[in-house]
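Bench log. Compound arrived from synthesis this morning; before running ITC I wanted a structural hypothesis for how magnesium ion sits in the protein. Inputs:
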Amino acid sequence: MLTKAPKGTMDILPEISYKWQYIEDEIRRICRQFGVKEVRTPVFEHTELFQRGVGDTTDVVEKEMYTFNDKGDRSITLRPEGTAGAVRSFIEHGMFNNPQPTKLCYLISCYRYEKPQAGRYREFHQFGVEYFGTQNPSADAEMISLPWTLYKRLGLTGLTVNINSIGCPVCRKEYNEKLKDYLRARYDDLCDTCKNRFDRNPMRILDCKSPICKDIVKGAPLLIDSICEECSTHFETVKKYLTSMDIPFEIDPYIVRGLDYYTKTVFEITAKNENSNGTICGGGRYDGLVEELGGGSVPACGFALGMERLLLTMQEQGIDIPDTHKLDIYVGHIGDENAMFAQKLVADLRSLGICADRDHLGRSVKAQMKYANKLGVKYSIILGDEEIAGKKVNLKNMDEGTQKEIELSAEIIAKNIVKE
Ligand code: ATP
Ligand code: MG
């Protein structure tokens, strides 16, 4: 028990963490290019924030939250997603007073009590972006183009963008009645969760994973066919923006997303995965959320993508991620008396921006080189009495097996190291 991580969690080990860092670097770059700035919010929030913000008819709130009372008897929840915290922060810090839109991103761990399986964990990681203060359909289109661009840059193929519009509270109200009229005849066959949703949020029944409910909703009226003119024009413009950016998309009238606060555009990006859940990104517009959480009437849209599912998909597609964390040079030395010299040289090389290391176990020079080989270091040198006295050293290219004699100085060694 002591030496086993809790179910549904995992360690990201050194032989994998460079892949995370590679993707995170790409994410940071893309956010800068889109003018999006990071917000860091706490891992836990007041439970009520998620109940109100995520919506209490969602699977997340109904079944999946890690909720507990702290020692001060406050109900606390580990964040199951990032939007609610970002919105809370936006309101708390009066970001609506800044020139709009406010573009925020987060790269966070999330917690959901789910049945662990491939691509589904209890601790997982999300990258998400939220735009506040704009109703413009171009913002919805950027919520799709940002993750799309990221996936493309990372080399993913076979992706599908599915979009839908779930209208606004006005058109949805009318639609909900139509849907309930349709479902009423088969109410008794609905699963218990959907029976519960029937009055509270009937639209979510369209999204149920149970085969019986799926069958029941097959002939149901679709919201996309009855959205109001404003929502319809908005949706048409989102589609035009996507087309103008060469982003292919499909309309999927069954996407309602799991969360209550969505309005107008909703979307999912799916990958054809063999072993893991296909949805790798989801998002949309949520014009009602800021107000719901006590802020003013501020329109907003966003998306979140799962980091683990992204990595799994890259792995399944055989995309190679370069290990940029390999050392440039290993500084070997002969005899204890030269250890200090080697340490100083390593320190000098590091201050010149070179990734350098040396022995810390008192190994023989042969064992040092064997170790350097194992590390996959590109260059090595060996410091003996002769090299130090003569101020000359052989710089060995370990990949090519070649070597050349150069002056024994940190600057000269650094100049001769060719970084990839
Ligand atoms: P699903 O339908 O697969 O349960 P979701 O609708 O609950 O997904 P969101 O709340 O939209 O997912 O979260 C956004 C993204 O986060 C998902 O597209 C997915 O990539 C990732 N994600 C969600 N839950 C998990 C989890 N338990 N483990 C790993 N990744 C997850
Ligand atoms: Mg889920």
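What the model suggests: The first helix runs from residue 14 to 33. The first strand starts at residue 37 and ends at 38.
ITC booked for Thursday regardless.
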